[in-house]
Amino acid sequence: MDIDIFRLAYVRSIESAGGPVQKVAISDTSGDIALAGPTADGSPGSLLQLYTVNATFIKSITCDEQITALCFSCAPEGLAVNSVAAGLATGEIRYNCF
User: Fold this and answer.
1) Closest CA to 97 of 84, 80, 86
2) What are the C-alpha distances in Å from 54 to residues 3, 11, 32, 57?
3) pLDDT tens-digit profile of 44-53?
4) What confidence tens digit (pLDDT) does each residue in 55-70 have?
5) Rounded to an integer, what distance in angstroms lies between the CA atom of residue 83 and that of residue 93?
């Protein structure tokens, strides 16, 4: 749910394509939003979804392992491609560039 902090008013909600959202990360540089939660079909693993700062859907990726942590890189916009890092239950860290 987005809230306008200047008017303290509801703006819009983001509906997850899978189950309930378990992890959220917001980019400090672009405001993009990453959501992670269970897959829609209930299979093992996680669904990673990316939205713009205006809650427009960009892309989703299904991961075979459970995502336990999320964060965005914070390189300056226009000079580098920012990515999402996902920490997995197996101890691995995966990077995704959208």
Assistant:
1) 84
2) 11, 10, 8, 9
3) 889 999 999 8
4) 899 999 998 999 999 9
5) 12
